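User: C-alpha coordinates for this one?
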Amino acid sequence: MADTIFLYKGTDKKGKAVQGELKGASTALVKAQLLRQGVKVKTVRKKPKPLFGAGRAIKPQDIAIFTRQMATMMKAGVPLVQSFEIVAEGVDNPRLSDLILEIKDGVASGSGFASSLRQHPKYFDDLFCSLVESGEQSGALETMLDRIATYKEKTEALKAKIKKAMTYPIAVLIVAFIVTGILLVKVVPQFAETFSSFGADLPAFTLFVLGLSNTVQEIWYLILGAVILLVWLFSQARKKSQKFSDGVDKVTLKLPIIGNIVYNSIIARFARTLATTFAAGVPLIDALTSVSGAAGNALYRDSILNIRDEVATGMTMNSCLRSAGIYPSMLIQMTAIGEESGSLDEMLDKVAIFYEEEVDNMVDNLTTLLEPMIMAILGVLVGGLMIAMYLPIFQLGQVV
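Assistant:
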Protein backbone atom coordinates (compact mmCIF):
# COMPACT_ATOMS: atom_id res chain seq x y z
CA MET A 1 0.00 0.00 0.00
CA ALA A 2 1.10 3.57 -0.66
CA ASP A 3 2.20 5.74 2.24
CA THR A 4 -0.45 7.86 3.94
CA ILE A 5 -0.07 11.60 4.42
CA PHE A 6 -0.15 12.69 8.08
CA LEU A 7 -0.55 16.16 9.59
CA TYR A 8 1.57 16.86 12.67
CA LYS A 9 2.05 19.57 15.29
CA GLY A 10 4.88 19.85 17.78
CA THR A 11 7.90 21.86 18.88
CA ASP A 12 11.49 21.85 17.64
CA LYS A 13 14.70 21.71 19.73
CA LYS A 14 14.39 25.43 20.53
CA GLY A 15 10.79 25.06 21.72
CA LYS A 16 9.37 26.80 18.66
CA ALA A 17 5.98 25.53 17.43
CA VAL A 18 6.17 23.63 14.15
CA GLN A 19 3.59 21.87 11.99
CA GLY A 20 3.44 20.27 8.58
CA GLU A 21 2.81 17.14 6.51
CA LEU A 22 4.74 13.88 6.38
CA LYS A 23 4.24 10.62 4.51
CA GLY A 24 4.39 7.35 6.42
CA ALA A 25 2.96 3.86 6.70
CA SER A 26 1.55 4.44 10.21
CA THR A 27 1.21 7.03 12.98
CA ALA A 28 3.94 5.34 15.04
CA LEU A 29 6.46 5.44 12.20
CA VAL A 30 5.71 9.10 11.52
CA LYS A 31 6.25 9.93 15.21
CA ALA A 32 9.54 8.05 15.20
CA GLN A 33 10.69 9.91 12.09
CA LEU A 34 9.80 13.27 13.65
CA LEU A 35 11.68 12.39 16.85
CA ARG A 36 14.79 11.62 14.79
CA GLN A 37 14.42 15.09 13.28
CA GLY A 38 14.36 16.64 16.75
CA VAL A 39 10.63 17.42 16.80
CA LYS A 40 8.70 16.90 20.05
CA VAL A 41 5.35 15.63 18.76
CA LYS A 42 2.07 16.90 20.16
CA THR A 43 -0.44 15.56 17.63
CA VAL A 44 -0.28 13.36 14.53
CA ARG A 45 -3.35 12.58 12.47
CA LYS A 46 -4.17 11.42 8.98
CA LYS A 47 -4.75 14.17 6.44
CA PRO A 48 -8.48 14.20 5.64
CA LYS A 49 -9.51 13.53 2.08
CA PRO A 50 -11.13 16.34 0.04
CA LEU A 51 -14.90 16.64 0.44
CA PHE A 52 -15.58 16.01 -3.25
CA GLY A 53 -13.19 13.13 -3.85
CA ALA A 54 -9.47 12.69 -3.99
CA GLY A 55 -8.88 14.18 -7.42
CA ARG A 56 -10.12 13.65 -10.94
CA ALA A 57 -10.43 10.22 -12.45
CA ILE A 58 -7.36 8.65 -14.04
CA LYS A 59 -7.66 8.83 -17.83
CA PRO A 60 -5.79 6.90 -20.55
CA GLN A 61 -3.91 10.12 -21.38
CA ASP A 62 -2.58 10.13 -17.80
CA ILE A 63 -1.28 6.58 -18.26
CA ALA A 64 0.41 7.62 -21.51
CA ILE A 65 2.14 10.55 -19.77
CA PHE A 66 3.17 8.29 -16.86
CA THR A 67 4.71 5.79 -19.28
CA ARG A 68 6.60 8.50 -21.15
CA GLN A 69 7.97 9.93 -17.89
CA MET A 70 9.06 6.49 -16.69
CA ALA A 71 10.81 5.85 -20.02
CA THR A 72 12.62 9.19 -19.76
CA MET A 73 13.71 8.53 -16.17
CA MET A 74 15.06 5.08 -16.94
CA LYS A 75 16.90 6.30 -20.06
CA ALA A 76 18.56 8.89 -17.83
CA GLY A 77 19.83 6.06 -15.60
CA VAL A 78 17.50 6.68 -12.65
CA PRO A 79 16.76 3.44 -10.72
CA LEU A 80 13.25 2.02 -11.23
CA VAL A 81 11.94 2.53 -7.67
CA GLN A 82 13.32 6.07 -7.51
CA SER A 83 11.75 6.81 -10.91
CA PHE A 84 8.32 5.96 -9.48
CA GLU A 85 8.86 8.36 -6.58
CA ILE A 86 10.00 11.23 -8.82
CA VAL A 87 7.10 10.76 -11.25
CA ALA A 88 4.55 10.46 -8.41
CA GLU A 89 5.73 13.75 -6.88
CA GLY A 90 5.43 15.51 -10.23
CA VAL A 91 1.80 14.65 -11.03
CA ASP A 92 -1.03 16.95 -9.93
CA ASN A 93 -3.70 14.23 -9.68
CA PRO A 94 -3.73 12.61 -6.19
CA ARG A 95 -5.35 9.45 -7.54
CA LEU A 96 -2.64 8.97 -10.14
CA SER A 97 0.04 9.70 -7.55
CA ASP A 98 -1.42 7.04 -5.23
CA LEU A 99 -1.59 4.55 -8.11
CA ILE A 100 2.09 5.12 -8.99
CA LEU A 101 3.14 4.74 -5.35
CA GLU A 102 1.17 1.49 -5.04
CA ILE A 103 2.99 0.14 -8.10
CA LYS A 104 6.30 1.30 -6.59
CA ASP A 105 5.54 -0.52 -3.34
CA GLY A 106 4.81 -3.70 -5.31
CA VAL A 107 8.10 -3.46 -7.18
CA ALA A 108 10.04 -2.59 -4.00
CA SER A 109 8.59 -5.63 -2.21
CA GLY A 110 10.02 -7.96 -4.86
CA SER A 111 7.23 -8.24 -7.41
CA GLY A 112 8.10 -7.52 -11.01
CA PHE A 113 6.99 -4.35 -12.78
CA ALA A 114 4.52 -6.26 -14.94
CA SER A 115 3.16 -8.20 -11.94
CA SER A 116 2.56 -4.94 -10.07
CA LEU A 117 0.79 -3.46 -13.09
CA ARG A 118 -1.48 -6.50 -13.34
CA GLN A 119 -2.85 -5.63 -9.90
CA HIS A 120 -4.54 -2.63 -11.58
CA PRO A 121 -6.33 -4.04 -14.67
CA LYS A 122 -8.58 -0.98 -14.79
CA TYR A 123 -5.66 1.14 -15.96
CA PHE A 124 -3.22 -1.35 -17.50
CA ASP A 125 -4.60 -3.87 -20.00
CA ASP A 126 -3.07 -7.22 -20.96
CA LEU A 127 -1.24 -5.68 -23.92
CA PHE A 128 0.48 -3.08 -21.73
CA CYS A 129 1.47 -5.65 -19.10
CA SER A 130 2.70 -8.16 -21.69
CA LEU A 131 4.95 -5.58 -23.32
CA VAL A 132 6.41 -4.51 -19.98
CA GLU A 133 7.00 -8.16 -19.09
CA SER A 134 8.75 -8.66 -22.43
CA GLY A 135 10.99 -5.67 -21.67
CA GLU A 136 11.84 -7.02 -18.21
CA GLN A 137 12.75 -10.44 -19.56
CA SER A 138 14.91 -9.05 -22.38
CA GLY A 139 16.70 -6.56 -20.12
CA ALA A 140 15.60 -3.61 -22.26
CA LEU A 141 12.82 -2.19 -20.08
CA GLU A 142 13.64 1.46 -20.86
CA THR A 143 13.46 0.80 -24.62
CA MET A 144 10.18 -1.07 -24.21
CA LEU A 145 8.69 1.70 -22.09
CA ASP A 146 9.63 4.18 -24.81
CA ARG A 147 7.81 2.03 -27.39
CA ILE A 148 4.78 1.66 -25.16
CA ALA A 149 4.71 5.41 -24.52
CA THR A 150 4.82 6.13 -28.25
CA TYR A 151 2.09 3.55 -28.85
CA LYS A 152 -0.16 5.00 -26.12
CA GLU A 153 0.38 8.58 -27.31
CA LYS A 154 -0.45 7.69 -30.91
CA THR A 155 -3.46 5.62 -29.88
CA GLU A 156 -4.90 8.29 -27.59
CA ALA A 157 -4.35 10.98 -30.24
CA LEU A 158 -6.27 8.82 -32.71
CA LYS A 159 -9.09 8.27 -30.22
CA ALA A 160 -9.29 12.02 -29.61
CA LYS A 161 -9.68 12.65 -33.35
CA ILE A 162 -12.46 10.06 -33.64
CA LYS A 163 -14.19 11.53 -30.61
CA LYS A 164 -13.97 14.97 -32.18
CA ALA A 165 -15.46 13.68 -35.44
CA MET A 166 -18.34 11.95 -33.62
CA THR A 167 -19.00 14.77 -31.16
CA TYR A 168 -19.31 17.62 -33.66
CA PRO A 169 -22.49 16.40 -35.44
CA ILE A 170 -24.07 15.50 -32.10
CA ALA A 171 -23.25 18.95 -30.74
CA VAL A 172 -24.94 20.54 -33.79
CA LEU A 173 -28.12 18.55 -33.17
CA ILE A 174 -28.13 19.40 -29.46
CA VAL A 175 -27.69 23.13 -30.14
CA ALA A 176 -30.44 23.05 -32.76
CA PHE A 177 -32.72 21.18 -30.35
CA ILE A 178 -32.11 23.65 -27.50
CA VAL A 179 -32.54 26.77 -29.69
CA THR A 180 -35.75 25.44 -31.20
CA GLY A 181 -37.10 24.56 -27.74
CA ILE A 182 -36.36 28.03 -26.36
CA LEU A 183 -38.04 29.71 -29.32
CA LEU A 184 -41.14 27.50 -29.06
CA VAL A 185 -41.48 27.92 -25.28
CA LYS A 186 -40.45 31.56 -24.80
CA VAL A 187 -40.74 33.49 -28.08
CA VAL A 188 -43.69 32.00 -29.98
CA PRO A 189 -46.16 32.46 -27.05
CA GLN A 190 -45.47 36.23 -27.14
CA PHE A 191 -46.62 36.34 -30.75
CA ALA A 192 -49.61 34.12 -29.93
CA GLU A 193 -50.93 36.78 -27.54
CA THR A 194 -50.65 39.38 -30.30
CA PHE A 195 -52.39 37.15 -32.85
CA SER A 196 -55.33 36.60 -30.48
CA SER A 197 -56.45 40.19 -31.15
CA PHE A 198 -56.44 39.68 -34.94
CA GLY A 199 -59.82 39.31 -36.55
CA ALA A 200 -58.52 37.38 -39.56
CA ASP A 201 -57.61 33.74 -40.12
CA LEU A 202 -53.95 32.92 -39.61
CA PRO A 203 -51.82 31.22 -42.30
CA ALA A 204 -51.53 27.43 -42.09
CA PHE A 205 -47.79 27.59 -41.41
CA THR A 206 -48.36 29.96 -38.48
CA LEU A 207 -51.13 27.76 -37.07
CA PHE A 208 -48.82 24.74 -37.29
CA VAL A 209 -46.03 26.51 -35.35
CA LEU A 210 -48.51 27.80 -32.72
CA GLY A 211 -49.88 24.28 -32.27
CA LEU A 212 -46.37 22.89 -31.99
CA SER A 213 -45.52 25.56 -29.40
CA ASN A 214 -48.58 24.69 -27.30
CA THR A 215 -47.70 21.00 -27.43
CA VAL A 216 -44.11 21.62 -26.39
CA GLN A 217 -45.20 23.88 -23.51
CA GLU A 218 -47.57 21.22 -22.19
CA ILE A 219 -45.34 18.15 -22.48
CA TRP A 220 -41.78 19.56 -22.68
CA TYR A 221 -40.79 17.55 -19.62
CA LEU A 222 -42.02 14.35 -21.29
CA ILE A 223 -40.03 15.11 -24.45
CA LEU A 224 -36.88 15.87 -22.45
CA GLY A 225 -37.40 12.75 -20.33
CA ALA A 226 -37.89 10.60 -23.42
CA VAL A 227 -34.66 11.90 -24.99
CA ILE A 228 -32.68 11.26 -21.78
CA LEU A 229 -34.24 7.80 -21.45
CA LEU A 230 -33.37 6.87 -25.03
CA VAL A 231 -29.75 7.98 -24.55
CA TRP A 232 -29.52 5.98 -21.31
CA LEU A 233 -31.10 2.88 -22.85
CA PHE A 234 -28.71 3.09 -25.80
CA SER A 235 -25.65 3.32 -23.55
CA GLN A 236 -26.87 0.46 -21.34
CA ALA A 237 -27.64 -1.73 -24.35
CA ARG A 238 -24.12 -1.17 -25.70
CA LYS A 239 -22.62 -2.15 -22.35
CA LYS A 240 -24.78 -5.19 -21.58
CA SER A 241 -25.72 -6.61 -24.99
CA GLN A 242 -22.79 -7.86 -27.08
CA LYS A 243 -25.09 -8.47 -30.03
CA PHE A 244 -26.44 -4.91 -29.94
CA SER A 245 -22.95 -3.46 -29.54
CA ASP A 246 -21.68 -5.50 -32.49
CA GLY A 247 -24.61 -4.30 -34.59
CA VAL A 248 -23.85 -0.66 -33.75
CA ASP A 249 -20.21 -1.20 -34.75
CA LYS A 250 -21.25 -2.56 -38.15
CA VAL A 251 -23.77 0.23 -38.77
CA THR A 252 -21.18 2.87 -37.82
CA LEU A 253 -18.92 1.70 -40.65
CA LYS A 254 -21.75 2.34 -43.15
CA LEU A 255 -22.43 5.93 -42.07
CA PRO A 256 -21.50 8.61 -44.62
CA ILE A 257 -18.21 10.42 -43.88
CA ILE A 258 -18.10 9.15 -40.28
CA GLY A 259 -17.86 5.56 -41.52
CA ASN A 260 -14.73 6.31 -43.54
CA ILE A 261 -13.09 8.01 -40.57
CA VAL A 262 -13.86 5.04 -38.32
CA TYR A 263 -12.60 2.60 -40.99
CA ASN A 264 -9.27 4.43 -41.37
CA SER A 265 -8.86 4.61 -37.60
CA ILE A 266 -9.38 0.85 -37.28
CA ILE A 267 -6.71 0.16 -39.91
CA ALA A 268 -4.33 2.64 -38.23
CA ARG A 269 -4.93 1.04 -34.82
CA PHE A 270 -4.46 -2.46 -36.28
CA ALA A 271 -1.15 -1.53 -37.89
CA ARG A 272 0.11 0.46 -34.88
CA THR A 273 -0.69 -2.26 -32.33
CA LEU A 274 0.71 -5.10 -34.44
CA ALA A 275 3.88 -3.13 -35.23
CA THR A 276 4.47 -2.38 -31.54
CA THR A 277 3.86 -5.93 -30.30
CA PHE A 278 5.82 -7.59 -33.12
CA ALA A 279 8.79 -5.23 -32.64
CA ALA A 280 8.74 -6.09 -28.93
CA GLY A 281 9.40 -9.72 -29.78
CA VAL A 282 5.87 -10.97 -29.09
CA PRO A 283 5.07 -14.03 -31.27
CA LEU A 284 2.76 -13.19 -34.19
CA ILE A 285 -0.08 -15.40 -32.92
CA ASP A 286 -0.04 -13.74 -29.49
CA ALA A 287 0.35 -10.32 -31.13
CA LEU A 288 -2.78 -10.86 -33.23
CA THR A 289 -4.70 -11.79 -30.10
CA SER A 290 -3.71 -8.47 -28.55
CA VAL A 291 -4.57 -6.63 -31.77
CA SER A 292 -8.07 -8.13 -31.83
CA GLY A 293 -8.74 -6.71 -28.37
CA ALA A 294 -7.54 -3.27 -29.46
CA ALA A 295 -9.45 -3.20 -32.76
CA GLY A 296 -12.36 -1.23 -31.33
CA ASN A 297 -14.87 -2.73 -33.76
CA ALA A 298 -16.68 -6.08 -33.62
CA LEU A 299 -16.38 -6.81 -37.37
CA TYR A 300 -12.61 -6.39 -37.34
CA ARG A 301 -12.19 -8.06 -33.95
CA ASP A 302 -13.74 -11.26 -35.31
CA SER A 303 -11.80 -10.94 -38.56
CA ILE A 304 -8.45 -10.59 -36.76
CA LEU A 305 -9.20 -13.64 -34.62
CA ASN A 306 -9.94 -15.62 -37.82
CA ILE A 307 -6.67 -14.39 -39.32
CA ARG A 308 -4.85 -15.49 -36.17
CA ASP A 309 -6.28 -19.00 -36.50
CA GLU A 310 -5.33 -19.15 -40.19
CA VAL A 311 -1.79 -17.91 -39.52
CA ALA A 312 -1.45 -20.61 -36.86
CA THR A 313 -2.05 -23.23 -39.58
CA GLY A 314 0.90 -21.90 -41.60
CA MET A 315 -0.70 -19.36 -43.94
CA THR A 316 1.00 -16.01 -44.55
CA MET A 317 -0.66 -13.03 -42.99
CA ASN A 318 -0.93 -11.05 -46.22
CA SER A 319 -2.91 -13.88 -47.86
CA CYS A 320 -5.20 -14.01 -44.82
CA LEU A 321 -5.77 -10.26 -45.01
CA ARG A 322 -6.53 -10.51 -48.74
CA SER A 323 -9.03 -13.37 -48.32
CA ALA A 324 -10.87 -11.45 -45.56
CA GLY A 325 -11.89 -8.82 -48.13
CA ILE A 326 -12.23 -5.93 -45.67
CA TYR A 327 -8.66 -4.62 -45.57
CA PRO A 328 -7.15 -1.99 -47.89
CA SER A 329 -4.70 -3.06 -50.59
CA MET A 330 -1.98 -0.83 -49.14
CA LEU A 331 -2.03 -2.77 -45.84
CA ILE A 332 -1.97 -6.10 -47.70
CA GLN A 333 0.92 -5.11 -49.97
CA MET A 334 3.00 -3.58 -47.17
CA THR A 335 2.40 -6.70 -45.06
CA ALA A 336 3.59 -8.89 -47.93
CA ILE A 337 6.75 -6.79 -48.34
CA GLY A 338 7.38 -6.90 -44.60
CA GLU A 339 6.98 -10.68 -44.44
CA GLU A 340 9.32 -11.23 -47.39
CA SER A 341 12.00 -8.80 -46.15
CA GLY A 342 11.74 -9.64 -42.46
CA SER A 343 10.79 -6.06 -41.57
CA LEU A 344 7.08 -6.49 -40.84
CA ASP A 345 7.11 -4.08 -37.89
CA GLU A 346 8.67 -1.29 -40.00
CA MET A 347 6.18 -1.74 -42.84
CA LEU A 348 3.23 -1.77 -40.44
CA ASP A 349 4.54 1.34 -38.73
CA LYS A 350 4.51 3.16 -42.09
CA VAL A 351 0.95 1.97 -42.72
CA ALA A 352 -0.09 3.26 -39.29
CA ILE A 353 1.46 6.68 -39.95
CA PHE A 354 -0.30 6.93 -43.33
CA TYR A 355 -3.77 6.10 -41.99
CA GLU A 356 -3.34 8.26 -38.89
CA GLU A 357 -2.64 11.20 -41.21
CA GLU A 358 -5.69 10.22 -43.27
CA VAL A 359 -7.87 10.33 -40.16
CA ASP A 360 -6.39 13.69 -39.19
CA ASN A 361 -7.14 15.18 -42.63
CA MET A 362 -10.65 13.74 -42.75
CA VAL A 363 -11.53 15.12 -39.31
CA ASP A 364 -10.24 18.56 -40.32
CA ASN A 365 -12.29 18.41 -43.52
CA LEU A 366 -15.37 17.33 -41.57
CA THR A 367 -14.94 20.26 -39.21
CA THR A 368 -14.64 22.67 -42.14
CA LEU A 369 -17.72 21.14 -43.79
CA LEU A 370 -19.86 21.24 -40.67
CA GLU A 371 -19.27 24.90 -39.85
CA PRO A 372 -21.45 26.21 -42.72
CA MET A 373 -23.90 23.36 -42.09
CA ILE A 374 -24.37 24.54 -38.51
CA MET A 375 -25.19 28.02 -39.72
CA ALA A 376 -27.57 26.61 -42.34
CA ILE A 377 -29.44 24.36 -39.89
CA LEU A 378 -29.80 27.07 -37.27
CA GLY A 379 -30.74 29.57 -39.97
CA VAL A 380 -33.51 27.31 -41.29
CA LEU A 381 -34.90 26.62 -37.81
CA VAL A 382 -34.76 30.17 -36.49
CA GLY A 383 -35.68 31.73 -39.83
CA GLY A 384 -38.59 29.33 -40.34
CA LEU A 385 -40.06 30.08 -36.93
CA MET A 386 -39.66 33.81 -37.43
CA ILE A 387 -41.27 33.69 -40.87
CA ALA A 388 -44.21 31.76 -39.41
CA MET A 389 -44.65 34.46 -36.76
CA TYR A 390 -44.38 37.43 -39.13
CA LEU A 391 -46.57 36.04 -41.94
CA PRO A 392 -49.83 37.27 -40.32
CA ILE A 393 -48.26 40.72 -39.84
CA PHE A 394 -47.22 40.85 -43.50
CA GLN A 395 -50.72 39.80 -44.59
CA LEU A 396 -52.32 42.40 -42.32
CA GLY A 397 -50.10 45.07 -43.88
CA GLN A 398 -51.19 44.05 -47.38
CA VAL A 399 -54.86 44.26 -46.38
CA VAL A 400 -54.41 47.74 -44.97
